[in-house]
Design a protein that fits this description.
Helix content is 50%, strand content 11%. It has 244 residues and is mainly alpha-helical. Among the domains are: 100 residues, Herpes Virus-1, CATH 3.30.40; 40 residues, no CATH class. Strand 6 and strand 7 form a beta hairpin. The chain is elongated. The chain starts with 27 loop residues before the first strand and ends with a helix. 11% of the residues are buried. One of its GO terms (biological process) is regulation of canonical NF-kappaB signal transduction. It comes from Hippolais icterina. GO terms for molecular function: ligase activity; zinc ion binding. This is RNF41 ligase.
Length: 244
Amino acid sequence: MGYDIERFVGYVNEGLLCSICRDVLEDPLQAPCEHAFCTACIHGWLVHHSNCPEDRQVIDMSLLRPLYRYMKNDLNRLQLHCRNREYGCEMVCSLESIDRHERECEYSQIPCSNAGCTVQIERRNLDGHLAVCEYRSRECPNGCGYTILSAEDTQHNCVAELRTELELLRSEMICRLEEAKHEMESRLDSQRRHMVQKESILQNEIEELKSQMSRMMSDVRSLMAAERQHRQELEQAELEKREL
């Protein structure tokens, strides 16, 4: 849908009106036959039709193009009232800047920011409403530190709230202690497995060293026996030499 023509100041050229809704073009598109439409209007039309609503020439989505630049410039220069005029806004600005103004307009109806509150309030009155809103939150005046809503004032009990908070903290602490305990047990088990594995490796290395030492001792004994045998043979040869 387009912009309500009643909002505009002065004359609006016929060529700047949507051929479907007959209001001033909003987010315009143009057909090859040069008839212009609001994007929402022509998209809705082409769901059920395949021609131009003005001259019945065949068109489809792919044939639609942005508005000619000179027409777009004429459209943007049009002057219109803010949509919040009925609430008291007297701003008149160009179509090109109307969206920016209305996003910030002090007369815009906006929802209360307090959870649970359904009131729509003018932006300029929001602070005053928040100060008295029954859904506003505030800290307990008795010093318990609990945040309460005005609607809950009569139900708020500092002792009960603090007891609940204490129980929650206690439960959280127990959970954290259990998590820390499990984590430490897991680390100890991992370290224990690692130490057992290292002990097994060291034991195997010790057994291997013992085996190597045993072989070396056997070799040494063999060498000593061979040396004695060799010495005896030399002594025998020396004796025979003397006898000769």
